């Protein structure tokens, strides 16, 4: 089992998370590295790719106690390399931490501070494309070798670029010499940061890079850094990108996201969702990231306007196979529409927080921390044989008492059913309690259980024989 399956990941868009001391917004944005673009105060609304709020690596370091207390175990940062934009996906130098965020030493300090807390760091990189200001592309346009061959030019001077955005020319990643520079050699760009202590990479637009490049990347990194993680951003069915040692360890599971949100908005049926989740037992899914929002999507409060919808979405995120990813600010109930509105600065005034939302995240993070089956367990679908909108399933490990029965009911009516449970260690008369605390205890029959789930609610029933003083159902466990 990869260490990633045990994590709670927290995504940070560095320009918008926190300004490190001793700077204020005014003093930070007065620095020379902010000479271009539009300066924005922390309470302003985002405008696009060329507005800057001043968040940095020191701001993240200053807030590590907050993140650790929340229960976060891994930070994921969108790119921090030198680039003209605020999002930094259009890099001009992979080996230079953008001065807006800090420098190599500040990055090392962050890594050391995280590791000192038993936490990890994953960074985002786009090796699919660079900025049209990158020296490689400038030299390529001038016909210089080998750079001309690292891009794809057409006879009329046009070139391949990501989604036809001319300022982001695509690299020809099939080139062996380019692979050497990016990831193959010990002194390559990606291995440089792994040597610094980075715990892994998230690969931007991973599907664009191609299958052969994915396999070459996994092979090259695994030779020297077998314990590091490679996560691919895949906005499609994930099976072709995880599953064996040639592929990514996991993906950003947009397949889960789209299914869960469509189900809660009434656009797909419970049957369709549970059928999609049945694929969740595939190798590699346990290390994939179950995300509901990100810097590229509207926030949960905008996607699901009803509180019960958001609660059920989070229960699914924390109980289905995969690693929960919390986009910064979701844990306090931040709002935000489509990009750039979803990239608002973090709310640090607790009076602006949603106490209900904060409570949800704390409950679910603690549940996942204490229930190994929710982190590493197998998945048994139950509701695929029922004519219901309720989604029900079992998570279990090979240890008998490590089992959870999950039922999520989005209907405005109670869900009542006898569930036949094809799992051997839910013994007759075994009491089950709802770990979420909202439903009554159940008692097992002979491989079946009579359940009732209240409207628009969820339950996670786990074994609980604590009322017995001189008896346990799990002998020798």
Describe this structure in words.
There is one protein chain. With 477 residues, the chain is an alpha/beta fold. It has 15 helices and 20 strands. The chain has helices spanning 25-29, 57-62, 64-70, 104-116, 135-141, 176-184, 189-196, 206-209, 211-224, 254-264, 270-277, 300-303, 307-319, 355-370, 372-376, and strands at 9-12, 38-39, 51-52, 74-77, 81-82, 93-97, 120-125, 200-203, 229-234, 250-253, 289-291, 323-327, 378-381, 391-396, 403-409, 415-420, 431-434, 442-443, 448-453, 457-463. Strands 10-9-8-7-4-1-12-11 form an 8-stranded parallel β-sheet. β17 and β18 (442-443) form a beta hairpin. α13 (307-319) packs parallel to α14. The longest helix has 16 residues, at 355-370. The two termini are 21 Å apart. The model has no long low-confidence stretch (mean pLDDT 95).
Give short descriptive properties of this protein:
alpha/beta, 8-stranded parallel beta sheet, 6-stranded antiparallel beta sheet
Which structural class is indicated by helix and strand composition? alpha/beta
Return the average pLDDT rounded to an integer: 95
Distance between the termini: 21 Å
Largest sheet: 8 strands, parallel
Question: How would you write the strand order of the largest sheet?
Answer: 10-9-8-7-4-1-12-11
Instruction: Determine the strand fraction and express it as a percent band.
Output: 15-25%
Helical segment count: 15
Shape: globular
What is the tally of beta strands? 20
| Unreliable segments of 5+ consecutive residues | none
Task: Name the helicity range.
Answer: 25-40%
Structural Rg: 24 Å
């Amino acid at each position: 089992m990869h260490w990633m399956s045990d994590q709670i990941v927290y995504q940070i868009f560095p320009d918008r998370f926190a300004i490190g001391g001793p700077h204020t917004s005014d003093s930070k944005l007065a620095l020379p590295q902010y000479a271009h673009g539009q300066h924005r105060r922390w309470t302003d609304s985002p405008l696009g790719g060329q507005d800057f709020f001043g968040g940095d690596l020191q701001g993240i370091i200053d807030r590590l106690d907050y993140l650790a207390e929340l229960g976060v175990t891994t930070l994921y940062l969108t790119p921090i390399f030198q680039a003209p934009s605020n999002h930094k996906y259009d890099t001009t130098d992979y080996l230079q931490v953008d001065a807006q965020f800090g420098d190599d030493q500040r990055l090392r300090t962050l890594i050391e501070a995280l590791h000192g807390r038993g936490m990890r760091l994953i960074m985002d990189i786009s090796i699919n494309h660079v900025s049209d200001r990158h020296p490689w592309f400038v030299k390529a346009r001038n016909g210089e070798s080998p750079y001309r061959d690292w891009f794809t030019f057409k006879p009329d001077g046009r070139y391949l670029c990501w989604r036809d955005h001319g300022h982001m020319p695509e690299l020809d990643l099939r080139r062996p010499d380019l692979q050497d520079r990016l990831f193959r050699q010990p002194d390559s760009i990606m291995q440089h940061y792994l040597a610094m202590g980075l715990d892994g990479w998230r690969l931007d637009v991973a599907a664009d890079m191609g299958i052969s490049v994915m396999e070459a990347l996994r092979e090259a990194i695994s030779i020297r850094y077998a314990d590091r993680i490679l996560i691919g951003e895949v906005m499609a069915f994930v099976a072709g990108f995880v599953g064996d040692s040639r592929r990514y360890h996991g993906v950003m599971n947009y397949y889960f996201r789209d299914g869960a949100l469509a189900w809660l908005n009434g656009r797909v049926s419970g049957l369709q969702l549970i059928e999609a989740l049945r694929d969740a037992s595939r190798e590699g899914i346990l290390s994939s990231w179950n995300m509901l929002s990100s810097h590229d999507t509207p926030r949960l409060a905008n996607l699901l306007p009803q509180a019960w919808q958001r609660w059920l979405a989070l229960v699914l995120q924390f109980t289905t196979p995969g690693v929960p990813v919390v986009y910064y600010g979701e844990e306090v109930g931040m709002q935000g529409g489509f990009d750039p509105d979803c990239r608002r600065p973090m709310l640090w005034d607790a009076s602006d927080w949603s106490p209900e939302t904060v409570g949800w995240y704390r409950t679910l993070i603690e549940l996942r921390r204490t229930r190994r089956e929710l982190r590493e367990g197998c998945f048994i679908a139950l509701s695929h044989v029922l004519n219901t909108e309720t989604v029900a399933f079992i998570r279990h490990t090979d240890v008998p008492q490590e089992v959870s029965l999950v039922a999520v009911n989005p209907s405005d009516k109670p869900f009542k059913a006898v569930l036949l449970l094809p799992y051997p260690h839910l013994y007759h008369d075994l009491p089950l309690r709802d770990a979420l605390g909202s439903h009554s205890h159940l008692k097992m029959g002979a491989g079946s259980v009579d359940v009732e789930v209240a409207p628009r609610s969820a339950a996670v029933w786990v074994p609980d024989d604590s009322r017995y003083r001189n008896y346990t159902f799990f002998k020798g466990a």
